[in-house]
Specification:
The complex is a heterodimer of chains A (473) and B (530). Chain A is built from eleven helices and seven strands. With 473 residues, chain A is mainly alpha-helical. Chain A starts with 20 loop residues before the first helix and ends with a strand. Chain B is globular, with a radius of gyration of 24 Å. Classes of the chains: A mainly alpha (473), B alpha/beta (530). Chain A: It is an enzyme of class 1 (oxidoreductase).
Amino acid sequence: MPTKIDYDAKIPNNIDLSGDRRLQRALEGWQPKFLDWWGEMGPTLRTQGVYLRTAVSVGRDGWAHFDHVNVPDYRWGIFLAEPDPDRVIGFGEHKGEPAWQQVPGEYRADLQRLIVIQGDTEPASVEQQKLLGLTAPSLYDLRNLFQVNVEEGRHLWAMVYLLHAYFGREGRDEAEGLLLRNSGSPDAPRILGAFNEETADWLAFYMFTYFTDRDGKYQLGTLKESGFDPLSRTCEFMLKEEAHHMFVGTTGVDRVVTRSAELIREHDTFDIAGYGGIPLDVIQRYLNFHYTVSLDLFGGETSTNAANYYTAGLKGRWQEPRRKDDHKLTDAAGSLSRPKADGTWETEEHAAILLLNLDLREEYRADCQTGVNRWNKILDEAGVDFRFVLPHPGFNREVGINSGHHVTPDGTVVDERTWLAGKRKWLPTPEDLTFVRSLMHPVYERGKIASWVAPPRQGINGKPFDYEYVYLS
Amino acid sequence: MTRTTSVTFERHPSGYRHWKLTTDGDVAWLELDVDPDGGLVPGYELKLNSYDLGVDIELYDATQRLRFEHPEVRVVIVTSAKDNVFCAGANIRMLASSSHEWKVNFCKFTNETRNAMEDAAAHSGQVYVAAVNGTCAGGGYEIALACEKILLVDDNSSTVALPEVPLLGVLPGTGGLTRVVDKRGVRRDLADVFATRPDGVKGRTAVDWRLVDELVPRQGFREAVLARAKEFARTSERLDGEGVELKPLKHRYVDIARTATEATITVKGPEDDDGWLLDVTRELDDAILRLRTNEPELGTWVLRTEGDPAKVLDHERAVFDAKDCLSNEIVHYFKRTLKRLDVTSRSLIALVEPGSCYAGLLLELALAADRQYILDGPPIDDEDSEERAAITLSEANFGRFPMGNGLTRLESRFFGDPDHVTRLAEVRGKALSPAEVNELGLVTDAPDDLDWEDEIRIALEGRASLSPDALTGMEANHRFVGPETLESKIFGRLAAWQNWIFTRPNASGPEGALRRYGTGQKAVFDRKRV
């Protein structure tokens, strides 16, 4: 079944929106509220046009179109991956049954909750990054920021589409609620803690897009397995766009590390703060913070909710089809390390189905490690004798079995005093934040870049680095 | 689940593990902060401010102390000390691992405690306000429902919910279903939607459906709640007077003796002690709770009294005449303790013997019993004695201590014959002989001293041979005649259905919803409706 793109419609889509008047009306009712929210909570910096990628199709080739767009006029649309009419549910007690094209009544509340939580994270990042445009290190980076922002906005649209199309009046209320909660708001904060943290500077932004958006990738990966086909297809396409956010994060940290390595070599000292670079230990502390806050997004190591979602066929495992087991997990077991009060770790046996959050977190951890290896390779090639380390999953945790324990980055369980004494070594200090912020001066000139970050190796869509990615006046 | 030590019910705020009680003038804060590792029985963790019997025992203690020790308190704010969660309700792993009688007993006690909160508002001018500052599900919402006002944080995500039916295959049995429609006047179709959706209802919809009274912004939540509480306090009708400290029990007035199948509870009348009624009520309350919880196989309770009937009546008169906060509290506490007896699933047999003091308010104990026997003759161990058993009616028996169905025990006993109750009112204050009380229908039988021991033995042995389940059902039906009230519905209909559901495979079988909860496996239901 070909899915035609209706790019001329008010809301670009490949869901035949014009054929569903009720849904069209509902979404057109939500659209101005979204634009109001964007105006209020979106990027502070005003631009005349940003060289953006806009999704225009879901096919393998040429799914995106690049051009300068006035950001508020960006065509936020609704795109689902191509349908597979023979798709069957791949796990849980409905394994082998045809995927659901409608919400099963039995799972309505659970599905709605999953979609609301996923949806709540999307506008949150935009809110967290609201002020970053004012201090962009180059036009290239500024463009990337806007790209991430508009795509988070589109991912919000994707979840809102599901709520509107499949969850009735309540779904519409929840869709509105996504705009009423705001990151860090004392009155109506975002649902998940990490999305109420501040993204105060560009190093934090790179770390956020590397670590926190990567959590999003893994969550979307599990929802892509969902037996509820519209959710699955929505998430599959979102993953395609999410890859760019990972790219921004990966190459962003790459470039900071590259620049720091250059300055270390040039001045033969690790203390490069005075030369406008970010010292490696500060980068390590940022890494420690963003990684651990992101680990919290995976929830408790043992989770009956996750188990119920799995059994019900709502949310699978990362790359479920590649797993070599019964995809039901009724008899499987797994183990979990728990910190003990005496400072040692003990291993507990649990039903594997209760450890699905841990399973996903482990996939994520391995993925994060590849980034760390990559940054270490940059240091290695530059001949700089320093290595980044991914901290132990027990370190600095607010959620799950490690919360309430004091675990050092190397996995030692210590008492509160020892932990507090080490905290300044392990997590960004107020001085670190102030220092990094002091480097954050906007560089809006074509081809120029801030002192603390190296230029990218390649531009966007074949354009050179000195291309005018953003029209500012 | 095995229990090695018996449960006690005496608590003190200085030793609370799960609640924080603070008072400030006319407002008290009662904050739920459950210690996850503080379960009464090993084997479960009290996550998300979920509760077990131990948590509720502290709540009960707090409600009692607020009434007796804090005459100045007019509003009690019930809230959570944890972020983003008010209370997740009864702990599911505890329920799943508990024996049937433990679950039922737990539900009964929690219901009695919720009723006591409402009783404080109705009769003591001490109004409970739920300040719901986060997710509020199941028993958590039932705590809120027991309050007169429910204020919900307006953060666009906090909900109230009764997810028992969809998630656990059981009922919101601590009055949840009943209070939603009977107390709060939620429309039955909306109540049906509400109680079948696991995710609950938030914000404006919760107000529109009458599930909560008001929304309060998240920022400045406590200040706003306090301001509303102050307004409620101004309209409270709490009596003035001194408070009294609830000291540790001395066990001077209530004795318990046990055989293999029965417990004998002996209540002693006052000497010249002013504090007798409060002390004896506290001891009786404690005895009922301990026997109910720790000794489920003692199926028959024999009720006895010892003392001077005249002194009971003197004491009673002094309390009734005082009309201050403390005496009001004592009267209502005795009322609640009698109600606790009414809903106790044990056969209650009252023995009226020479030397007993079934006068006025203590006569209510006999009237609460399923049967009453009076000895028509001298004391068994002293046949030369002139002493005879007697019963004396007083003002106490004509409206001071209503049952849960809204009737007095005499009105319940003579339901359908109101003239008889009127005639009884005319003999108030007179010590009635065994022949007279038998004639007036106040006892089941009046054996003489030759027959007494055999008659009582046969009655008790006969009782012990019957099915405890059938007896429980029969007694509960006989005790609550006539009209239904919110309270009788909770203890009658709701509890009866819950008892049944608790024993059904759909809830408690190996593949039942309660057992499967938290395993990630879905319950398997027998789809036949019965």
